[in-house]
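User: I've been trying to design a sequence by hand for this structure and keep getting stuck. Would you show me what you'd pick, starting by listing the structure so we're on the same page?

Assistant: Good idea, let's start from the same input. This is the structure you sent:
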């Protein structure tokens, strides 16, 4: 199939998938970018449509992927010109290919973790870019699951997928309530460490080698009161300057790599 009219019904529907309301209505979402599409494909995401720009030709890497993927992906392949593609693409990276895929949600019942799990709880995050960056770091540090608690952000927002560099498809991510996330950890004997500005101890003092969950809070308000109890350890990052906090994705990076460092050191000793 080839489409040259940007007002085409199918094109307009795909454009509307940028919005959460349309994604919920259709059960579909958009993946913009070759790297992200490849990672979705590898993760077994069901791809319904592929839009390929044919005028001008897409980058060489995209052309090579198209040659490999066409026989493998049983989806509808749609060729479009640059005018249509410019309406479809999200952001300024131009790989010349966009996918429409089925939303596949994971539940807590579906979640499978190891006997010594490392999970992250992200409560009430508001910015898609922060959640995407957190997922990217989670993938890099061996996090087994991210529990997105009382989410203000849609997991299938294009900015989440783009900022995650495709890690949105590699790290199991579950929408839950804060109470569900806490209960799930307690029932499995997973120690919870809550990142707080007024944490009782510096983050380096935590013992993250046993089963561990790190709880991170809202960009403005931090964690809610449910994460303040005797069975939860609160940790803080040292702040020696004038500012009193870091971006949540930066905080996640510091904490997650400390967990990875301790676990690597423990496994080699």
């Amino acid at each position: 199939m080839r489409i040259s009219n940007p007002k085409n019904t199918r094109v307009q529907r795909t454009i509307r998938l940028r919005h959460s309301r349309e994604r919920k209505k259709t059960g579909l979402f958009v993946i913009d970018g070759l790297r992200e599409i490849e990672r979705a494909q590898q993760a077994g995401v069901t791809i319904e449509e592929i839009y390929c720009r044919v005028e001008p030709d897409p980058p060489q890497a995209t052309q090579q992927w198209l040659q490999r993927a066409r026989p493998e992906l049983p989806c509808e392949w749609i060729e479009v010109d640059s005018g249509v593609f410019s309406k479809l693409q999200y952001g300024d990276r131009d790989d010349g290919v966009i996918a429409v895929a089925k939303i596949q949600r994971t539940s807590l019942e579906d979640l499978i973790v190891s006997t010594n799990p490392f999970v992250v709880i992200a409560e009430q995050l508001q910015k898609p870019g922060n959640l995407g960056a957190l997922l990217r770091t989670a993938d890099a540090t061996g996090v087994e699951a991210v529990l997105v608690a009382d989410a203000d952000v849609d997991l299938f927002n294009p900015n989440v997928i783009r900022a995650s560099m495709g890690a949105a498809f590699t790290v199991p991510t579950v929408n839950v309530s804060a109470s569900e996330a806490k209960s799930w950890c307690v029932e499995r004997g997973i120690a919870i460490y809550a990142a707080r500005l007024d944490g009782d101890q510096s983050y380096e003092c935590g013992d993250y080698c046993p089963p561990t969950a790190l709880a991170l809070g809202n960009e403005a308000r931090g964690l809610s009161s449910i994460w303040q109890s005797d069975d939860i350890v609160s940790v803080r990052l040292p702040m020696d300057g004038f500012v009193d906090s870091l971006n949540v994705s930066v905080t996640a990076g510091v904490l997650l790599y400390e967990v990875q460092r301790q676990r690597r050191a423990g496994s080699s000793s």
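That's my pick for every position. To get oriented when you compare it with your attempt: The longest strand covers residues 47-55. The mean pLDDT is 94.
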